[in-house]
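Researcher: Let's continue the batch. This sequence belongs to cysteine--tRNA ligase, and it's 797 residues. Same format as the previous ones, please.
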Amino acid sequence: MSAFDYGFLLGITEELQTSQALNEYLSCRSYVAGFCPSAADAEVFALLGRPPLLHHVHALRWYRHIAALQLGPETPPELCRKGKRLLPPWSPPTGSEPPKLKLYNSLTRNKEVFVPQNGKRVLWYCCGPTVYDASHMGHARSYISFDILRRILMNYFRYDVFYCMNITDIDDKIIRRARQNYLLEQYRQKKPTASQILKDVLTSREVRPFQAKLAETTDPDKKQMLEKLDSAVSAALGPLQGAVESGTSDAVLLNHAQVLLEEAKDLLSDWLDSQFGSQVTENSIFSLLPKYWEGEYHKDMEALNVLPPDVLTRVSEYVPEIVDFVKKIVDNGYGYESNGSVYFDTAKFDSSHNHSYAKLVPEAVGDQKALEEGEGDLSISADRLSEKRSQNDFALWKASKPGEPSWESPWGKGRPGWHIECSAMAGSILGESMDIHGGGFDLRFPHHDNELAQSEAYFENDHWVRYFLHTGHLTIAGCKMSKSLKNFITIKDALAKNTARQLRLAFLMHSWKDTLDYSNNTMESAIQYEKFLNEFFLNVKDILRTPTDITGQFEKWEAAEIDLNKSFYGKRSAVHEALCDNIDTRTALEEMRALVSHSNSYMASRKSARLMPNRTLLQTIAVYLTDMLKTFGAIEGTEAIGFPVGGNGESADLESTVMPYLRVLSDFREGVRKIAREQKGKCLTLQYCVLCVLERLPTVMKLVDRETLLKEKEEKRKRVCLFLFAQMAKLAKMKIPPSEMFRSELDKYSAFDDKGFPTHDSEGKEISKGQIKKLRKLYEVQEKLYNDYLQMSQNGS
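Model: Same format as before. Here are the C-alpha cells for cysteine--tRNA ligase:
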C-alpha cells in the first residue's frame, strides 16, 4: 500500500507550481507515514529536483523526510517491510538515595533516622508549663522551638502529628505561691500601720526562714539573688526608720511604709507562710492562681503564633487516673506505701529484666540536689526523706500536710507527685508507647528519667518513648535565665521590644537543641534577616505588577535565568538536606539567604541593563521562600508572596485595595519626572518629596505597614543626627590651630617650642625620638585640617 497518492502532480510541468500544489495538498493530510518511500514519493521527489521554498513548509518537511529515507538509488527491500519496529533497549537512571529525616534522640545522644511506629501517624507528648507566674522567654525557647519542629513535620514532611501537652496546676511551687499570695493579700487588707510594717519586715529579715536560706545557699546565682533582695530591703528600710525616729507626719510614714512593703513582699510573704501557711486549707485558693496564669500562658502562645495542642490535659482533671496509675505500679511490684505516701522503688525497677533506670542521664543517679529539686520544696523535709527505702526513690503520691490541697486515695488524703502527672496523662491519651516526647534540656533528670521508669513499670515495656527531644537552654545576654532566681524576661516584655516573627526568626537562626542567647545582638540579626527578605519580596511584587499580556509572562531564558534557576534548585535541595539533618533551620535559613542574594544580583544586573527580569522565575522563587516561611510559622495569612501588610483589624487584602491608588500616584510622579527631564533636570516638589531626576528608571512601589515606616523614619533621623554630630565634631577639631592642639594636654606635656610642639613630658623629661615621630604625624594631620578650615572660611562655605 502506498503511503501517499501523488499521481495528479505528475501532470504539472512548472517546478514552482508543483511545489505550491504539493504544499497545499499536504497541508490537510498526514504525509509522514511508513518507513520507506512509495513509488509516487520517488517520482514526485525526482520531479522536484531540489528542496521546496522555505514558505512551503509542508512540502519542505515531506521532501526532507523522503531524502532521509533514501539510502541510495534503490531502497533495500528489507527496509520497506511494513509493521512496527521494536523499541530499543532502555535502562533506568542510576539516581541517588534521597536523604532521610534524622532527629537527635536524647535516648541515644545521636541523630537517628525517624521511623514512626504507625506509618505517617506521629504521637507526640510535650511537657507543658507549671503555671504559677508569668510565662517567660525560657518557656518561649521550648514552645516556639517545638512549634517549629511540629509545623515542619506536619507541613513539610507531611506527617500526621497528634500533639498532646499538659498543664501542671498541682505542684509544690504552685501551693507555696498560692499560700504566699493569699496571706500577703490578707495582710494588706488589714491595713497595718507603718510601725507594724517596719516591725514585721525586720522580723522576717532577721529570723528564719530567710536568714537560714541565705546562710545555707551554696549556689552562687541563688545566693546573689538573695543578697540582692536583702540589699533592696535594706535600702527601703532606711527612709522609714529615719522618718519614724524624726516623728514625720503619718502621710509621709505611710508612703515610706508602702515602698518598703513592695520591696519586701517576697521576704514578708515567705515569713507569713512559715507562720500561717498550715492554716490555709481551702482548695479553691490553690486553683485560682494556676487558672489565672494558664489563661495568660495561652494568650502569650497565641501572640507568639504557637499552634495550640490537639489535646491539653490538666493535672487537676486527671487525679482519678493518676491514682489508678499509681495503684497499678504498686501492684506490679515497683512501688511501696510509707506513712500515707507512695514511692517508686528504683532499685527494684533497675534490677528487673528489660528495665533500666535513668536511661537519659545514667551518670546523674545519686545526684541528691537534682533529686530533691524534683521532689519539690515542700517534700524534702527530714521526715519525708526518711520515709524512703533509698534516697534515689521518688514520690508517686504525697500524703498532704496541713496547708496543702488533698484528694482521696487508697493510701489516705494526698496529692500527686510531679513526675507521675505526665505519665498518667500521656498514657491516658497516647497509650503504652509514643513516637516523640519533648521538653526542656533541664528536665532530662530526674523528671523525664522518672517518667520513663514509672511508665514502663506501669505498661511493663521498655519503649514508652521512641524519640526524646530536648530543647537547649536560654541565656540572657550570656547569663543563666531562671524564674526562681528572678532573672527572666516575660514573653510580654519581649513582645514589647520585638515582633513574634522576629523572635521566631531568632530561634530559627539557631539550632533547636543548643543553647540560645537572647541578647540585643541575637535580635538585631533576626531584624536584619527579616528586612533582607522583606526587601526582596517587595521588589518581586513590584516587578509582577508591571502590566503585560498573557504571552509576555513567558520570556526567553538566557544564561542569567538558567544560572539563577540552577541556583534555585540547588538551594532548595540544600534546604531539604538541612531539614532532614535534625531539622537544621539555621542552615536552611542561610541557604535561603544565599538564594535571595543571587536573585537580588540577577535583578540588579537586569536593571542596570534596562531590561525586565524574568517574572515567572522570580515569582517561583518568591513563592517557594514564602511557603518555607509559612512552614516555619514565620508568616500567617493567604498572601502568595511575602509578609502580610497591616496589623490586627486591618483588611487582609490591603494590598489589592490600596495599590490601584498608589499606581495612579506613581503614574503622576512619572509624569512629573518626564516634565523635569524635559526641563533639563530641574527639581519639582510633590507634597513633601523632592523629585530630582537623577535616573530614568521607573518608580518602584513597596507597600509596608505604618509601624515599619515609623521605625525606619526614626532610624533615619538617628542616622542624620549622628552624621551631624560627627560633622560638628570634625569642624570643631578643624578650628584648632596645630600650635594649640598639644598645649591643652598639661597632664602629658610640660614644655613646648615656639610652634606649640611638645618638648618635655609632664615629669620634665625630654620627649623621646620615637614619641616625637608619632606626635609629628599628629601635628601634620592637624595642620592640614586647619588649613582646610581656613580655605573653607575664605570661600565662605
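Researcher: Any comment?
Model: Residues 706-734 form the longest helix (29 residues).
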